[in-house]
Amino acid sequence: MTTQTAAFAVSKKSVLLPILACAVFGMAIVFVTGHVQADLLHDAAHDVRHATGFPCH
Amino acid sequence: MFTRIVTSALFAGAAAGLIAALLQLYFVQPVLLHAELYETGALVHFGGDAVSAHQDVGGIDPLRDGLSILFTMLVYTGYALILIAAMAFAENRGHVVTARNGIIWGIAGFVIVHFAPGFTLAPEVPGVAAADVYERQIWWFATVATAALAVWLIAFGRNWLAWGAAVILLLAPHVIGAPEPDQFSGPVPTELGALFAARAFGIGAVAWVLTGLFAGHFWRREADREA
């Protein structure tokens, strides 16, 4: 019983960690491409930011 | 799990992003370029002479449009990663994700990241007056976060407490209000601004339905491959 509970806890944790990592990874991509105001990024992504409804400048 | 989420998100995001980029280039970009003629002062609205509504806005600009395609694909890959992470979380709790119900996930995504913030901070055509960009970004992120929580509560909540909280979360950012400019000083005709916002919403909806559909499809396909 104890072993089962431990195994279950491990599998829950091993699922949640990659889910969280992917979500954070995705948010980082959206933040860098859509929101960082560095000139180079802003100019390259300018049209996309407007068309996607992000606050641009 | 990590590989499965990343693989399906790359396929779904790239496919939906590519279609979204092509739709944007065809339907949104000409409106944006037209507005930029007013933003730069090449055309003057309500100046001395009447200005024709039909302007040559140029054709395809390989560098500029190429970057737009690349960045749209990146943005939707980012969105797909978040969406599929949420799908994986829901499956972990007993919900089954398919290509078909992925469409509903996609519509929810559109409501969260386009419609909820855009309801008060409408998609801006270049050359309109707006408040400080950092303040708007904070409001944008706060609105997306509350809308995401609200949509999750509507979908997976089981009682009126959850649904009531969702309604409050959806309304709060708009009742509080977004950062607005002090004066309206935009030189762009309102017709262009309205068309731009409508098209940005329309393409956003299509892009998100496709993101949800592809996310569900590739998520299932990767599951079958692992099984």
UniProtKB/TrEMBL annotation, chain A:
Please name the InterPro entries in this protein's record. CbtB_put
- Enumerate the transmembrane spans: 15-33
Q: Which UniProt keywords apply?
A: Membrane, Transmembrane, Transmembrane helix
| Source species of the chain | Thalassospira xiamenensis M-5 = DSM 17429
> What is the protein name stated in its UniProt record?
Cobalt transporter subunit CbtB
Q: Lineage, please?
A: Bacteria, Pseudomonadati, Pseudomonadota, Alphaproteobacteria, Rhodospirillales
UniProtKB/TrEMBL annotation, chain B:
The record ties this protein, via Pfam families, to:
CbtA (PF09490)
What UniProt keywords apply to this chain's record, in alphabetical order? Membrane, Transmembrane, Transmembrane helix
Highest taxon of source: Bacteria
The residues that cross the membrane are 69-90, 102-122, 137-155, 160-176, 196-219
Name by which UniProt lists this protein: Cobalt transporter subunit CbtA
Source organism: Thalassospira xiamenensis M-5 = DSM 17429
- Highest lineage ranks of the organism? Bacteria, Pseudomonadati, Pseudomonadota, Alphaproteobacteria, Rhodospirillales
